[in-house]
């Protein structure tokens, strides 16, 4: 029997393997996850999710609390290794990378150099100033110190925050701090940015502004954004939306019921990029 590893040692039947989402004709998705499964004792966090994200696209992941949104984001970003399934990243000009088979060090390097992260809070270092927070991310991504600080100041300038460059994070408003977090995530121009509730702590006006900056520097610049959000206004601004429920992409056919077969995920001919009738995917193409 096809099984997946389980922390308790009890084999759990794996969902049937679905073919990967093909993406738009002739276009290799920037990131392609196929049949992701992640199980914890007592929790089937992901039960077979396949999804592709292309350049120039923003994908919103929605769903109820505990449905598996963050788990999916973390698997896509190489922060968590799935029990089964694959994540393939196609860097610009390089060979494809199987994120899920990289060792910890390689994954950390990939995240530093090619991925950007924005979380609701927690990524900024309170003991550093705004400009230092941004510049450090540049240096970790391989920039020389002087270049990183100049780029960080450029970012602060474009965000209207140059007067706050020397302030520590605790001296900034929530919206200012989150703009610094976006700049921090974007200073290396990552090919794909992962954001988990990036506007969760902001009022609606500031939320709109922060999303505008994030969208412009990711999908708007030919790169990609994957954003987990509860906010329908945020999700509405993405090119595509998926709804996760009980560790599966919800195709809307079983609202309010727990899925039992583990087969309802985006795969095969289902489209994420407006190229087919997607299960659980709304496209704005
Ligand atoms: N480290 C862990 N150990 C055990 N179970 C976990 C762990 N991380 C997540 N889970 C479980 O996996 C499921 C999915 O969690 P996840 O954090 O992805 O939910 P979510 O949709 O992001 O929820 P929320 O909107 O509340 O943040 C939940 O049942 C959760 O309890």
Automatic annotation (TrEMBL):
It comes from the Bacteria. Gene3D superfamilies: P-loop containing nucleotide triphosphate hydrolases (3.40.50.300). One of its GO terms (molecular function) is transmembrane transporter activity. Pfam families: ABC_tran. The keyword ATP-binding applies. Residues 12-23 have a biased composition (Pro residues). The keyword ATP-binding applies. Residues 31-272 form the ABC transporter domain. Residues 1-27 are annotated as: Disordered. Keywords: ATP-binding, Nucleotide-binding, Transport. One of its GO terms (cellular component) is plasma membrane. This is ABC transporter ATP-binding protein.
